[in-house]
Amino acid sequence: MSAVRTVLGDVPGGELGVCDAHDHLFFASPRLPGEELRDAAAARAELAAFREQGGGTVVQWTPYGLGRRAADLPALSRETGVHVVAATGLHQDVHYDQDTLAALRGRAADVFVAELTRGIGTSGVRAGLIKVAGGFHALDAHARWTMSAAAEAHHATGAPIAVHLELGTGALDVLELLCGGAGVPPDRVILGHLNRSPDPVTHRQSAGSGCWLAFDGPSRGNHATDWRMPDAVRDLAEAGFGDRLLLGGDTTAASARSVDGGPGMPYLLRRVAPRLALAVGDELVRRVLTENPARAFAVDWH
Which residues bind Zn(2+) 2 (predicted)? Predict the structure, then answer.
């Protein structure tokens, strides 16, 4: 039986409720000095604010080595009543020191599988997806290595693979590597940040493969995406791909949290969803926030 692997255990996809399909409760990278998400109290407040807007699930895409704080996630989920899904995987190499990457050479897939099946570190919290990342219009050696490891871990567990597309680019190269070369079923691949490169042809080609398309990051003020995203979603819906779409917030900086004066997780439901409904209707928005993630993150675990 398929289930979504949350930090409190496996649950049927239908129990997720309204889902923020890509966000971060904890995240720390040398690329964002001074903006680390490390405060558990702020994470709790952010989840509570999301819950007040009708939110039911947050999928945290924070991968290995970037401050996931997996041991803190179960209590936050219980206290706020919001399901939380954790991730394994690796981000771009610029987020890590070379010693960390060297220690994973030849064993990344094994680490991913262990975190999906046994737990992250000593926390006992099992990851529910694998997060990897591409580069700007290209896949470098690091991306190819981590995606190959992710594909191996997928074949061992069934876990979905979520992909950070740098500025929304490289979608077709990712699909060629994961699905064409590594044999990952397209419906187990989630492409993130497509709103950052509003190319309708690439969007439709990607959706046509059967993968999931995530439109996320409305908090990013340096990407003119909020006003373009409804048109991109409408184009895909009119082409028959409304059942392949996901929405997320991708809050990666402390200043972007609603409890610190930014839009944060509640903004997805407070402003983005109503704006999108004007373009595609309330019913499609409901399905994108509930039915689609229930299928995208549910796995026949093995």
Answer: 131, 164, 193
